[in-house]
Amino acid sequence: MSKLVVIDHPLVQHKMAMLRDKNLGTKGFRELVNEITMFLGYEVTRDLSVEDIEIETPLMKTTQKVISGKKLAIAPILRAGLGMVDGMLLLTPAAKVGHIGMFRDEETLEPQEYFFKMPQDIDEREVIVVDPMLATGGSAIMAIDSLVKRNVDPVNVKFVCLVAAPEGVKALQAAYPQVDIYTAALDEKLNEDGYILPGLGDAGDRLFGTL
Hints:
Elements: E1 4-6, H1 10-20, H2 26-44, E2 50-56, E3 61-67, E4 71-78, H3 85-91, E5 96-97, E6 99-104, E7 111-117, E8 125-130, E9 133-134, H4 138-149, E10 157-164, H5 166-175, E11 180-186, E12 189-190, E13 196-197, H6 203-208
Helix pairs in contact: 1-2, 2-3
């Protein structure tokens, strides 16, 4: 079974409390999403492969470690996932960015894909799928389905979100037990409309001011 990693650093908890506040404006929401994503990115990249290189400091020659192995790709689920891209790129500026466009049918709660664009060598990269919310798990599963269809090995995929519901975690782990999940908060449950409680509302609307 995949790992579920809840980043409970005090600064993350503090920023998540601010993020949830319904009175927080669009500018503040975007800034906090960016900041929290950086904390998540720090953890999700913890196990990147490294190799030794020799460099010369102003004082002497020394052997130091640099990142090696597979290159990275960041795959936001549109549109809300776009709000997490900059935070990831601040840590991994050389990463390529693909896009997975989805919307949720408000009656069935099922995701519908309308756009998919990835780097040509996506099957050779480690892919970090980002979306602020892991609710029912449907969008995350469909996004990974789309990657697998393009020959991406799910063992090379990680899913990163701000808030997760237990139902979504269970569904994603059942569909893709190879995919580790990183989140800033594991919330209580979904309501009858498929929204996370206590949650933070519609992340896309709050990011882009379309309330």
